[in-house]
Amino acid sequence: MTIDRAKAGAAIEIKQQKRGDLVAEEIKRLITEKDLKPGDRLPREVELQQLFSVSKSTIREALKSLEVQGLIKVTTGPSGGGMVVEVPLDRTLQLLQNYLFFKDVSIDDIYTVRKLLEPELAAGAVPHLTEQDFEALEASIACCDRPASSHGGQDIVRQRQEDVNFHDILAAANPNPFLRFSCELINEMIRQLIEFRNDTPQVEHERFGLANVKIHKAITKAARERDVEKVRELMVIHMTEAPRYVKRMKGKLRGRLILDSEIRRRVRARSVAPVDETDEE
């Protein structure tokens, strides 16, 4: 008797999958086929039970799995159920960091990629920048264009945060969703994962801040003039200089996993007030 090993292997794989996981896959297919968008609601639990001929506990297990993946939000009560949501950048970062935890990634590695992407991101954003965007860029620069020492340690934190926010403003104006996502993800990694030794002299932070202010002003001026090539050229210079400052400040990547509790805390903080975290460009 001849056994088709490929079919046997597939059968074993299907058999090993939990019913809740299979239903979760079917719900994903349903979201795709119905072209559901963030804010759209899934059918009620009882309707999903009837649709897939499974128990209430299996449906809840499937919904919980999709919620953990960041694809839906589940609420309870008479009008509760699953609602499609956009996968949060924080959750994406967490998954990526969990992957990178086992890789030997350096600051040079991050900036090698950033040097390739950021100039194109900024250049592509130029035609789409509005007056509101320019006001946001200038407000970000103004936050950093003052002596941090006169405002205390928290002001340094805020200035370093604004260094990265400047790039997020440019990213938001770029119409290429994949390029925008890639750069926003790198920015978030820089916020969360680059840290500096406590003995880093404040003067080094100030030098880095002044260098950022100077180049950010030049980039904003060129962008106002709609000079795409000048913006691209300036961003290459910026991405070449920045890692030199970071290494001189003894910056390093935190080699640890990001916890769910940290993500929840950041989400709550953003809904109330600006986040005070040690951020770096």
Automatic annotation (TrEMBL):
GO molecular function, one term: DNA binding
Keywords: DNA-binding, Transcription, Transcription regulation
Origin: domain of life: Bacteria
Chain ranges of the HTH gntR-type domain: 17-87
PROSITE patterns the record matches: HTH_GNTR
Protein name in the entry: HTH-type transcriptional repressor NanR
